[in-house]
Write a structure and sequence with these properties.
70 residues, alpha+beta, 434 Repressor (Amino-terminal Domain), two-stranded antiparallel ribbon, 50% helix, globular, Cro/C1-type_HTH, HTH cro/C1-type domain-containing protein
Length: 70
């Protein structure tokens, strides 16, 4: 069974913490425009970005997306 990334949950994390995209960008080193792209599901996170963002949020990389099986 294969799994693929569905909806990005980053916006949910930011909302629950009351954080802005700009604040996450500053903490993680990921450009604000890129964070916005991820939240809009316009692109998938690179492994480096996912690792940095997960570290800042205190979660696992797998927690950043809904995972869908085929």
């Amino acid at each position: 069974m294969s799994m693929y990334a569905g909806r990005c949950l980053l916006g949910d994390y930011l909302g629950s913490r009351g954080w802005s995209q700009r604040y996450l960008a500053r903490l993680s080193g990921v450009p604000t425009s890129t964070v916005s792209d991820y939240i809009r599901n316009d692109s998938l996170m690179s492994l480096n970005h996912a690792k940095n963002i997960a570290n800042v949020l205190g979660c696992n990389i797998d927690d950043l997306y809904e995972w869908v099986s085929d």
